[in-house]
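Worked example 3. Consider a protein that binds heme C.
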Amino acid sequence: MRIKKIIILLIFCVGLLSCKKDPEIKTSVTGEIEDLYAPVIPKGWPQPVYTFQNNPVTYNGFTLGRHLFYEPLLSEDTTISCGSCHMQIFGFTNGPSHALSHGVHNLLGTRNAPALYNLTWHGLLRWDGGAINLENQPLNPLQDKHEMNLPILTAINRIGTSAKYKDLFKKAFGDTMVDSQRLLKAMAQFTGLLVSYNSKFDKVKRGEDGFTSAENDGYTVFKNKCGMCHTEPLFSDYKFRNKGLPVNMYQDSGRYGITQSMSDLYKFKTPSLRNLAFTAPYMHDGRFKTLDEVLTFFTSGVSTSLPNLDPFMAVPHSISTQEKNNLLSFLATLNDYKFINDSRFSEIH
Ligand code: HEC
Ligand code: HEC
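Given these inputs, the predicted complex is written out as structure tokens:
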């Protein structure tokens, strides 16, 4: 545990150092505070799926969403907020000690809390695509008995009777009315602005930095073995696939649970490979603690008898020790310390 703390501290120190030379996040040059809270589409990236068309982002809307994201009043026993399972220091995951998400009354879910960043580029949300967009997603954790276990009407009532939130809703929407639509829209303004695009990889692509030869060789391994599913620049195409993970004790059937279509059995949404230094453990149930374990699975753990196994995983793959080390060096260039330390996304005290 102590070693973990030291590693986290080190990550932070490196993060703080690397922050200084990064360009400021701004989309215009007027210097207005709203500029810092405008949705960003980094150069060369595709158009997002969720565009804020019916939910224009404002500083006050985002700030309301930020308060709500860290608000434990939104759970039955007022102990859990969205930020409890999605912690910024861990890339907005539940962190290394929680393979499965941990909700009210210490209840465990059956899945690992995914990292929250670049969410507006996802087609469907959740490991199984069970949420159709960023505005609807919070209804799941709010009402799930293993997560926050609070009926939305109770949530509205608690927030609506709080003087702090009356003020925040007035600033964001013009009057003090609290309803689910406003609550969900404000939350989507916060989660939708969690954009991670300042890793070393991004800087290399922008011509601000260069890869070492190990990183460059690792990039080649990545393109040959990983890039067809974990596609650049988001490092996922967010499609559903069966990567060949042996079925877990919960018999989690993945996308099949939503569509009931046999062709979706054991498919899970491909996650991004950005920020892996912060987001362990890995996979939909957090079964792998390290990237070493992930790569060992890749070369020798694939369950080839599963239905719908992705054809690329059905053939054996080998990765030499050298290739593995280079690949790990490349993957480390995808860690975005600026994002992890960005004060706009932290809890407001
Ligand atoms: C008890 C832990 C927990 C809490 C509290 C929680 N989440 Fe999550 N979150 C999860 C888990 C687990 C998943 C994956 C669910 C699944 O795939 O079945 C998830 C998925 C998500 C996703 C989808 C990410 C993706 O990659 O598809 C978003 C967005 C999200 N949560 C936002 C929120 C918001 C906003 C709140 C507060 C209203 C919240 N979460 C509260 C555990 C939690
Ligand atoms: C056939 C498509 C495909 C290929 C090729 C592929 N992956 Fe994946 N990857 C997935 C899918 C799908 C998941 C989600 C699996 C799950 O949890 O059920 C995943 C999950 C991961 C995760 C877990 C991330 C997290 O947030 O939990 C890591 C790490 C990862 N892959 C790394 C790699 C690396 C490194 C390579 C190349 C050596 C690779 N993958 C090749 C499809 C692929």
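Take a moment to read the result before moving on. The CA atoms of residues 88 and 346 lie 7 Å apart. The pocket of heme C (ligand 1) is lined by residues 69, 80, 82, 84-86, 101-103, 109, 111, 113-114, 116, 119, 122, 125-128, 137-138, 141-142, 147-148, 187, 191 (CB under 6 Å).
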